């Protein structure tokens, strides 16, 4: 029968070839797997023991190392803490520090005074007007320079010296009139807007503001000249 059905013989041979690799790759017995697991566990335990012994040895060596410095006493630690909080300074450094502290306090006091509303009113009142007091210092400087030049190069020019003295008196009179005019206007506005505010020191503040040239005034003017007329 096999002679008349050759295709069955080829199929039987193919099935035999496919089954042979499966039989060759059969799983290992359980005993070999157990031996392999025991071997790996033993090696891991040995490595763990070696690491533990090495760590204990390093800790023991660190514990036996001597200290770099003796432990400070309580009094020494307290003194070091006080030194950090309040460092001891030399007399020169202490004077410099005191001077800086005084300057900071003075600056804070000036800034607090400048924030008062009545002073802001005086600044705006003076900055919005042309004043004679603003040109008083330049006039004084020019007169003094000419006076010294006459005394050095022409000491006999008595008439010129008298003329300069008269100019100084006129400038002083103009400053007094200008200050009175400004103070009268400021008092009127103070009575209207801030009737209960103390006026102590406000007149000198007005004169200082008026006599300082506009570009050197501090705080910087926040209004333009002539703004009081437009208002």
UniProtKB/TrEMBL annotation:
Residues 39-59 have a biased composition (Polar residues). Residues 22-32 have a biased composition (Low complexity). Pfam families: DUF3043. Residues 75-85 have a biased composition (Basic and acidic residues). Keywords: Membrane, Transmembrane, Transmembrane helix. The chain crosses the membrane at residues 135-154, 160-183. It comes from Cutibacterium granulosum DSM 20700. It comes from the Bacteria. This is Membrane protein.
